[in-house]
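User: quick one
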Amino acid sequence: MKEVKLKKKLFGAFIEIILYDFSKKEADTILKKTYKEALRLEKIFNIYDTSSELSILNKSKKKKVSPELLFVLKKALTLCKLTNGKYDVSQGEEFLARKKGLKISQKKCSYKDIKITKDVVTINNSEAKIDLGSIAKGYITDKIKEFLIKQGAKSGIINSRGDIALFGNSTTNVKIRHPRNPKKVIGSINLRNTSVATSGDYTQYNKSFENSHIINQNKFISVTVIAKTLIEADLYATVFMICSDSLRKEILKNKKGLKFLGIKSDLTIIKV
Amino acid sequence: MNKANIVKEKHEADNFFSQNLENNKKKSKIATVEVSEDEGYSSHEPKEKEAVWFIDKEPPKDNVREIFVRPPKDDDYGEGVITSAS
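Assistant: Done. Structure below.
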């Protein structure tokens, strides 16, 4: 099948989009419109941009927010509640410190300090800083996919720096790296018209894997989730890295359409 | 035709049509075939085969595109533009 490959700067680096239905010229035109929308969405969630909507909310502690921010925040808070705070989007400060290799005193705040009344978000704790990084990329990628489909794209791949959204009927073999030996592939799966995300301790850590960017990590060192949307794949990949076995089993039992592959520190593999 | 006859004929016509409507409804109930839905796939569409994991072995050589899924890296983001933490 003829394909057009395009690269666009997003999330601070390059994402790759492959389209199967268009000439290079047509694809460029379509992508130009899509990219404008992607940049608008990125601007909402970027916690390192002091003028982003999320940063303004974190600073002002009370703000009427956009439908996009409201949607993603509500989705995240549902999982915060479900995991009883093991997944907690109020811990933005700690997450940023861990990425810099800094140790900070534990913040006395939780997702329970975040209140939503209609479209107004209030943060009732000066130490709380909302970080939606675990799902914002998935959400934005889903929106890029929707936008491309609206423009007439029937089949393609969006590779958002490791998070993958596939649409249409072309099959792709998605490979998962060995979390302790990056030259090796530990497994793969043939997919089409779905989304896949991986969370793991092996790409962001300070000196040792134990000091990864993931707060409250459990015994998994890599978790891959396949879901209908990338926001869900992203969210559950993070949640399964930190939640209990029983909760993971319950979610996988009740949430139809999720597939899961987890690798434990002794390299045993659990898959659904 | 006097007025009484006209009224009688109108009633008979109304009854005829309402009776027909009732019969048609009954017929259409009998003729209706329930199409069962299962997770978004109607019964006349081929159901998607469930994807299977290939662990420690190569997938069949189907000449499909290969791509890596992975967690985000620090170097995914330029200065001051980190957006993901998964």
